[in-house]
Amino acid sequence: MDKEKTGDDEKQQKDTSFDLNDYTIIKEGEAEILMHSKNQVFYNKTQVNNRDMSIAVLRTFISQRKLEHESMLDRRVKTGPKVPDESVSEMEPPADSVHYNGKFNDGYELLEEMSSDEPCSISGAPTRNLREKDREELKPARVLEALSASGLRALRYAREVEGIGQVVALDNDKVSVEACRRNIRFNGPVACSKLESHLADARVYMLTHPKEFDVVDLDPYGSPSLFLDSAVQSVVDGGILMCTATDLAVLCGGNGEVCYSKYGSYPLRGKYCHEMALRILLACIESHANRYKRYIVPVLSVQMDFYVRVFVRIYSSASAMKNTPLKLSYVYQCTGCDSFHLQPVGRTIAKDNSLRYHPGFGPAVPQECSDCGKKFNMGGPIWSAPIHDQEWVAAILADVKSMKEQYPAYDRICAVLTAISEELPDIPLFLSLHNISATLKCTSPSAIIFRSAVINAGYRISGTHVNPLGLKTDAPMHTIWDIMRCWVKNHPVKAQPSNQAGSMILAKEPVLQANFARAVASFSKAQAKKVARFLPNPEKHWGPKLRAGRKITERIVKMLVGLGR
Fold first, then answer.
1. At a CB cut-off of 8 Å and minimum separation 6, what does 526 contact?
2. Of all helices (H) and strands (E), which one includes residue 104?
3. What is d(CA 397, CA 525) in angstroms, rounded to the nearest whole number?
4. Which of 234, 264, 186 lies closest to 15, judged by CA?
5. Phi/psi of residue 250, each to 5°?
6. Are strands 340-344 and 307-316 parallel, antiparallel or unpaired?
7. Is 294 helix (H, G, I), strand (E, B) or coil?
8. What does the alpha-carbon distance between residue 310 and residue 219 come to, in Å, rounded to a whole number?
9. Is residue 263 within 8 Å of 283, Cβ to Cβ?
10. Residues 187, 46: Cα–Cα separation, whole Å
């Protein structure tokens, strides 16, 4: 009864000082927004997948943050205060210091905060005071949504995620800020108490609020590159940056020179281009973080619909930052057979009980492809370290399943997370079985048969969430071609011109004799349980919408009609 009464009170307190006839009420999750009929403020229904995934990650982050805080307090109570080391630089915190509510703090500050006129005692009073101070509850998380538009995302964070104390929504468009404030009032006192909206340039705001937010969310219309430098500075140590990029035409190789100017990496137009887009974005964020002695740890990276979305935690450490070259690689892709090879940017050598950093050995490939004799294109650098934390993925998936009714896009995000949970985490990029078969002009083996051959050869293989036909494996390319040569012997192809890549590959005898007997591990757990991993779009024209203020012209109507045929 109390909950029902509270809900009624909230509805009564909603601002209705405007004519509702001019607006459409849109409900998503627990939030409601008012959308004007003139499309004055941008709203994209398709991004419900994005918002649901972000809420799922945010809930796991809040839980993880609490666990880490409790663990830190337990360690500090056990060890007690330490004498500060004068040799420690002011610019870099001591190794055992802990980031607490936006500031580095390590026990000495707690002692300094005690009153100086208190007499020293050997009875343990200072230690008791220290422990009482240490046991303060963790302050609720502060969230910054840098590009809020209608404020729907910020409203859902404030209303649906427990443990959030404040959500700051920014926009540099006056109409959007007015709409956001109107929606905040429309959602009642809970939203009003947690959410505030400002008319400001997100870049300036984040630069003037360094290390103040536990969560920073960037979801721009297009490229986030303009906001990354200030975003990595505004996140507290151990905080999380959630970043979307919708300019996939650029990131996937449509305009390589534009991608290089925005992200500092050159893309390649392979079947793995969408995963490469994720890795280019991660490498770019890492580059910006490194300028401020910070580094990133990806917990989840997804490609859905028409965009890529990454969730990375940000830490400060001048020493750990040196490992960045070990996480980056250049990519060589054959122009004939689409084989690809990675060239790490850096390497380390252990010498005299220390680790020394050196440039990576190269070249990773000869001038011409050893399989088909064609030249290579070079792309990158890309992030070649893992793009997911599988423990986080498992925790997020479990949380989503336990709160199914709270996710409007439950089916889609559950399918994506399930596919991610089965990926090989340490294998960058992937192969396309259909693309390999097209190179040889042969019938394609089924995924189960091909997986079995790879497993029987002693290698690992998995699917990828990016492409239902993609396969990740640690088998080298010459082994892959040997398996396909054995396949073609049992399934002959028509003769092709000798100068084609497929003919040159088939002209060589296989070194490995493939075993196509079905392997037990050729089926993933999701496949064995018949769990859906790739779902169709819920409706026609499911994709990016028009910018705010734009109208659907005849040209756009003709284009949509053409796509619908």
1. 418, 419, 422, 533
2. strand 103-105
3. 15
4. 186
5. -75, -50
6. unpaired
7. strand
8. 11
9. yes
10. 22
Are the beta carbons of 186 and 192 closer than 8 angstroms? no
Tokens of 61: 């982050």
Q: Closest by alpha carbon to 455, among 438, 479, 433, 435?
A: 479
| Assigned architecture for domain 431-529 | 2-Layer Sandwich (3.30)
The tokens describing 83, both together, are 């004498």
What are the strands, taking DSSP E only, across 172-293?
A: 195-199, 213-218, 235-245
Residue 230: C-alpha distances to residues 168, 204, 406, 545 (Å): 16, 8, 33, 27
Tell me the C-alpha distance between 491 and 471, whole Å.
22
Cα separation, 285 vs 43, in Å, equals 26
How far from each other are the two terminal CA atoms of the chain, in whole angstroms? Answer: 52
pTM over 0.90: no
Compute mean pLDDT per 10 residues along the chain, 565 residues long, and list them.
44 52 86 77 80 96 94 81 47 40 37 35 40 67 93 95 95 91 92 94 96 96 94 97 95 94 95 96 98 97 93 96 96 94 94 89 91 94 97 96 93 93 95 94 94 96 92 95 95 89 93 93 71 66 55 53 46
